[in-house]
């Protein structure tokens, strides 16, 4: 397993797009934090919490793209056979990519939270006085980015195409969940992305369960289809 993790760490360190995507997620949140920090008519709204929402979904999409690349680029460049030859076990391959991507997702979430706070302060706004409320918002962001990165790994492994996998994730986040909530009366708290972003237990547990099932399916198909 140590060799599998080392192999994966070398791959992500040398892939420039990984760091561009993670930094972009942070910068988007800085811009959102600055926008809300500049507002002076918030009423009961909190600038820090309000800075998340649509923008943290964009951040989740960028992190998912990092996860997709873990398998998508391997398939597109025909290097998966080399990976299989070096690491041999599909379980080790998927586990290593999931662990490294989860770490990158956590890093992205921390960047998003810190950059949001920096944006709010730069705009002259105030950070939340309630540390507990701020902590819940930050925890939701971290869960969202970690799970989205893992979802990206699974999509990349199952679909074997980077653009298709990222496109499907984007459609789910920005079209399907909105449609389900508006037209099918599905509670927002029960939806995987929206529920996780709102710290809702049903959505978060559902998202985690979907990710686990998808990663299991990825391991199975890697062993059968790419063996």
Automatic annotation (TrEMBL):
Keyword Protease: no
Top-level taxonomy: Bacteria, Bacillati, Actinomycetota, Actinomycetes, Pseudonocardiales
Swiss-Prot/TrEMBL keywords: Membrane, Transmembrane, Transmembrane helix
Residue ranges of the TM segments: 20-38, 50-73, 94-121, 133-156, 163-184, 204-223
UniProt name for this protein: ABC transporter permease
Keyword Membrane belongs to the record: yes
Species: Amycolatopsis nalaikhensis
